[in-house]
Amino acid sequence: MENMESSNLIVKNKRQKYLIPLLIGAAWNVFFGLMGVFNLPFHITLFYNSITPAVKLIANQEFWLVVLLAGVSYGVVAFNVSRFRFFITIGAIGKIGFFLLISYLWLGSSVTDFAVIIAGGDLLWAIYFLLFIYRTREYGYI
């Protein structure tokens, strides 16, 4: 009985340790996702140096919907670290890919400096997510 209580306390402490950072990561994605979904023209002026065709606008809106859903999934992980860690694994991979893509586009003057700053923020989150995955490895890597 005492061993079970000790085990539950360890899990609770680990969850509390990551609750706030994961909720901040969730809010980050939810904010930019909502901005992309509900105010796409403003979002485009922040991120792109040129107006894109209508098909690209729709694709961009779908991208930001995925960002919004990722933010919600990080919030879910904050409340159940041991069960939903795969969201963080996928998020880390996606954030690194996003940073690389935006950096490449920035070098070609296709995106704004603001886009690179946001992508840099995503890279910092990716580093934190990788650290989180490592520190909670007793639940498995995925």
Structure, described:
The protein is mostly helical. It contains 5 helices and no strands. It has helices at residues 2-38, 40-47, 54-79, 86-107, 113-135. The longest helix has 37 residues, at 2-38.
Question: Can you describe this structure in just a few lines?
Answer:
The protein has helices at residues 2-38, 40-47, 54-79, 86-107, 113-135. The protein is mainly alpha-helical and 142 residues long.
Topology (SSEs and partners):
Layout: H1 2-38, H2 40-47, H3 54-79, H4 86-107, H5 113-135
Helix pairs in contact: 1-2, 1-3, 4-5
Provide key terms for this protein.
5 helices; 82% helix; 0% strand
- Low-confidence residue ranges: none
What share of residues is helical? over 70%
For the termini, the CA-CA separation is 30 Å
* Beta strand %: under 5%
When the domains are counted, the total is: 1
Q: Assign an overall shape.
A: elongated
Determine Rg (CA atoms, Å): 18 Å
Taken in chain order, the helices and strands follow as: HHHHH
**Mean pLDDT reading:** 82
* Separate helix tally: 5
Global structural class: mainly alpha
Number of strands: 0
Q: What's the main sheet like? A: none
